Amino acid sequence: METVGKKCVLAREGKSSPPQSFQFPYLRGMEAQKDDISQLQLRWARLMDRLNQQFRKVPNLEAILFLIGVRELGKGTQEWTKEQKVDLMHIAICAILAPAGYFELTHLDQEGWPHYEPREELPAGDIFSQEIFLKSHIVDYFADIYDI
Questions:
Q1: What is the pLDDT of residues 104-119, one digit of tens each?
Q2: Region of residue 22 (phi > 0: left; psi between -120 and 50: alpha; otherwise: beta)
Q3: pTM given for the model
Q4: Are the C-beta atoms of 91 and 113 separated by less than 8 Å?
């Protein structure tokens, strides 16, 4: 198996502006952005409650990405190597960002692993902005599954 998703890198060097996805054109001013982040926090809390109910544990961001990767791969629960776990998290990042146009699924390899190509440059930002960006897309990914 070749390494999957190496192009799914979130950090961008030398840039510190917040992600564009959180600069909503229809919202004006800091209050609107605070309201939007508050809405994300509420949806995130609902997702954590659902995952806690299902797994009897509140997962961290990496565990959620791993879970999404396993779900996207569709091979069920099994033993994964460290490299495969990293690949699964890359798959998850690509899968959650694909609906927003950042990545496109190009094919499945012989082993059934999905491969993505970048379509749009990811927004730059500090670690806090990147976390908000990921959480927003994770919540959207689970929205239909858990009705959050």
A1: 999 999 999 999 999 9
A2: alpha
A3: 0.77
A4: yes
